[in-house]
Amino acid sequence: MIAVAKGAEMLYLKLLSERTRAGMLLVSLGEKEGEDQFLLLRILNSRPSWTLRTNGPAPSFKIALQMTVGIKSISESVSIEDASQAEQMERTIERFIQTGLSDFIAKCQKLRIDPAGFGDYARTHRRHWDREAFYASYPSMKTEVRVRAKLMQSGTID
Question: Spore germination GerAC-like C-terminal domain: from which residue to which, for each copy (predicted)?
Fold first, then answer.
């Protein structure tokens, strides 16, 4: 099957598949006073770690993504002036990316495509891997995604 991935989905595939040292992602922060708020993230470094959790016919994966990000641009109405605001922004970024990755994986499962390589990972970590059984259960495969983002401060302060 052929499917088209656009924009952020390509970045999500890259984040799932390999260590990343470059990338930009537009993060929606919601609406404040009738105005949409955004921040443009620059991904400085990321490292995915996969764990195969079950050995039955329907596997389960845990994906942990550690990343360091910087803010390239931010809406004027958003301020990050102290450590608690920075920590809150990190949690917001983590939730946004975690949701995006989970949605991307669910879309791939629905389309029955495996661009991230779950089948290859299971094959190399399971002694008696069966391709047909794996891909028959692939659409219902459980995945748990955890993201840890560290916000790197850079630039000048007015």
Answer: 1-155
Domain 8-151: CATH class, spelled out:
alpha beta
d(CA 150, CA 133): 39
SS3 48: strand
pLDDT digits 0-9 by tens, 91-139: 999 999 999 999 999 999 999 999 999 999 988 988 888 889 888 999 9
For residue 152, give the amino acid letter. Answer: M
SS3 105: helix
Chain centroid offset of residue 34 CA: 28
Cα end-to-end span (Å), the chain: 52
- pLDDT > 90: percent of the chain: 49
Q: So where are the chain's domains?
A: 8-151
